[in-house]
Amino acid sequence: MVFSLFICYEATAAPPVHYIYTSSSDLENLNSLFLRDDIEGVQIVYTWKQLEKSKGVYDFSSIENDLTKLQKKNKKLFIQIQDRFFEPNQKNIPPYLQEESEYKGGLIAQTDNPGEGKAPAQGWVAMQWNASLQKRYQNLIQELAIKFDGRVSGINLPETSIDINKKNAEKKGFTCDKYFAATVENMIFARKAFKKSFVVQYVNFWPCEWNNDHNYMSRLFAIAQKEAIGLGGPDIVPYKKAQMKNSYPFFNKYKEKLPLVAMAVQEPTLTYINPNTKKPFTKEEFTKFAEEYLGTNIIFWATESPWLSK
């Protein structure tokens, strides 16, 4: 199924298909959007805490309900399993990971850019470089695969970018190489668990790298090609300078070499201004860059995207 899907997306060289993205709790209110003929499906973000209620006790009823609702309307579901959060009060990993000593608190503070010209926001990221915590995350992925492989269109893992205080993180075992290795291990584990559905790793920046100076970006893309793992990212911002020094050139280099490229236009993405027009980027501008430069097959659109209200 993986390779038949690959042929479907690549051999036809079709323009990107469109999904909306949202959280599970919002799906009920979005009928008017996901029922549109130009929307192929929905990407839904589920937090780790939402899916693992206590250690080894899983509750996938939210995914099951969302999948049933979408299938009845002949729409597809892409699931994102979130281990990082972008507000101070969001510590959405299971409590045991924050309480038991082997996980060293489970989370570490990070800052995030919520959009162009906006003040940085403080949030949290799970310490995947902690082997005990990473094992629990991989257990979650395995359980999800048992239940949903071949039933959902795909699963994507969160972006590689984190902005942390490295000195504080080092006290909890962080190193640049450990973070990179944990990311690669998780995406390969997901690929082996999900044999039928797509697996997509979001990649944009690395916390210790600029312009591939550690060869993290180049290695990740090469591994993704070898292991038949899709790649993507949370922001399509045409020719944004920071992105052009990180993941974007590699998407261009690997056009038609990956099983899937799935990119997003999220809420912060909508704040960016086209320097040529002095206006926010349009759907057409996002899509043209995504298709022609990044080789994108799927675009996940924030529900606030102006064209969706027309």
Structural features, described:
The protein has an eight-stranded parallel barrel, surrounded by four helices. A three-stranded antiparallel β-sheet has the order 6-8-7, with no helix packed on it. It has a two-stranded antiparallel sheet with strand order 3-4. With 310 residues, it is an alpha/beta fold. The model is unreliable at 1-12 (pLDDT under 50). The protein has helices at 2-11, 31-34, 48-51, 61-72, 95-99, 131-148, 166-170, 176-193, 216-227, 241-244, 248-253, 283-292, and strands at 17-23, 41-47, 52-54, 57-58, 76-82, 84-85, 107-112, 121-126, 154-157, 198-202, 230-233, 261-265, 273-274, 279-280, 298-302. It is built from twelve helices and 15 strands. A hairpin with a 4-residue loop joins β13 (273-274) and β14.
